[in-house]
Amino acid sequence: MSAALFLVFSCFICIASCLPTHHHPDRIARLPGQPPVDFQQFSGYVSVDEKREKALFYYFVEAEIDPPSKPLVLWLNGGPGCSSIGVGAFSENGPFRPNVEVLLRNEYSWNREANMLYLDTPVGVGFSYSTGASSYETVNDEITAKDNLVFLQKWFLDFPQYRNSSLFITGESYAGHYVPQLANLIIQLNKKKKIINLTGIALGNPLLEFSTDYNSRAEYFWSHGLISDSTYNVFTSGCNYSRYVSEYYRDSVSVLCSRVMSLVNRESSRFVDKYDVTLDVCIPSVLSQSKIIAPHQNSERIDVCVEDEITKYLNRRDVQMALHARLVGVRKWDVCSNILDYDMLDLEIPTISIIGSLVKEGIPVLIYSGDQDSVIPLTGTRTLVHKLAKQLGLNTTVTYRVWFEGQQVGGWTQVYGNILSFGTVRGASHEAPFSQPERSFVLFKSFLSGKPLPLEF
């Protein structure tokens, strides 16, 4: 081969291998107000049902350094009905956080260690849409899992360079349903022909088993001083929380449960964030007028009003254009969907057994809890993980102990059979990477590497 021909041929090879990212139609040139960065970002739609015109919206951030060598991490927020882009990417573990007119860098962004893929699911959530309104009616876990699998398969066609990457599926809250159910479908698909390299799953404050998770709330409230002894007694014997929720979603709340819940709500106060019992709440703008006259110096580095900032930012026309996003069937972007009619009785489907089957298939599982969350408290989660380990006959391989981030205790951990891990993130809310970004990053990094959490500083 002549030198000139070789040069042309090697250029062709280079162009072909570079094409998927550099010339990708979903590539984001730059987000409004964004600081300069070296990594690439993409966002857009993947059609999951041509007939119903169902399209799921994604935001993909390549790893900061050497993306091809890094794993691919799919992140799903829960709700059901809340946006993974709005919550996960822009307030938890993505590269930026909105602040007034600009985006600030998140120095503990998970794309320091992985290629991060955020998905708004199911349709009707965030920028995801369907032109047939019937797609929003009675969406359930089964439909969501199937759509998520179709999304992944089609996304890999658009980004073939990541097809063989190690895939970790992560998420929090109701993603305790989404993640195991999607992982389960991938396992079934791979049995016919291995096409997705599923390597592990991680779940934060997840709903795994309705009654255990919900009924651990009463003890959490009581032990943190949010309710009185007498209210604790009726909240555990008269009407427990799972009974109330079960009645609520069947439109049949009993007089007893109604009375108990009004007691609980009155004592625990609406000025305490149930997702983080120690964090101050974001005072609505009506109440914050006085703060403009006499600004309150808040030493907290956590922006408790971040949700308002995200809503403002993602409703900007220039931002939507940069993201290749559009509003279909809604007037404005919302953190959690107002048009989705999810089958809330699916809350009661236990997913802990699916996690058991994933472990049996050799898929490593990390389940972690922000320890300031009263919505899905660590006590219920820890009980469920321990019980599952016992059922699977897994021995404790890392005894219950502290782990460190820097010179401080980051939380506690226990590992079973080197495959099923439980961890807490000290001082973290329901959305651990939002309230404890540094500690959550350490947890994430050790999970990806398959190493135990740091035992010393």
Sum this structure up briefly.
This protein has 457 residues and is of the alpha/beta class. The chain contains 15 helices and 13 strands.
List keywords for this structure.
single chain, about 450 residues, alpha/beta, Rossmann fold, 2 domains, eleven-stranded mixed beta sheet, two-stranded antiparallel ribbon, about 20% strand, globular, disordered N terminus
Structure description:
The protein has 15 helices and 13 strands. With 457 residues, it is an alpha/beta fold. The protein has two domains: 19-210 and 344-449, Alpha/Beta hydrolase fold, catalytic domain (Rossmann fold, 3-Layer(aba) Sandwich); 227-268, no CATH class. Strands 1, 2, 3, 6, 7, 8, 9, 10, 11, 12 and 13 form an eleven-stranded mixed β-sheet that branches. Strands 4-5 form a two-stranded antiparallel sheet. A hairpin with a 3-residue loop joins β12 and β13. α2 (84-92) crosses α10 and α4 (175-192) packs parallel to α12. The termini are far apart. Mean pLDDT is 90; it is low at 2-20 and 285-300.
Overall tally of structural domains? 2
Q: Pick out the low-confidence regions.
A: 2-20, 285-300
**Element order: H for helix, E for strand:** HEEEHEEEEHEHEHHHHHHHHEHEEEHH
| Major sheet details | 11 strands, mixed
What is the percentage of strand-forming residues? 15-25%
SS-based structural class? alpha/beta
Q: State the shape.
A: globular
- Tell me the number of helical segments per DSSP (H or I, 4 or more residues long): 15
The overall strand count is: 13
Radius of gyration, Cα only, in angstroms?
Answer: 23 Å
The CATH superfamily of the largest domain turns out to be Alpha/Beta hydrolase fold, catalytic domain
The rounded distance between the terminal residues' Cα atoms is 57 Å
CATH topology value of the largest domain: Rossmann fold
EC number: 3.4.16.-
Protein name: Carboxypeptidase
GO molecular function: serine-type carboxypeptidase activity
Subcellular location: Secreted
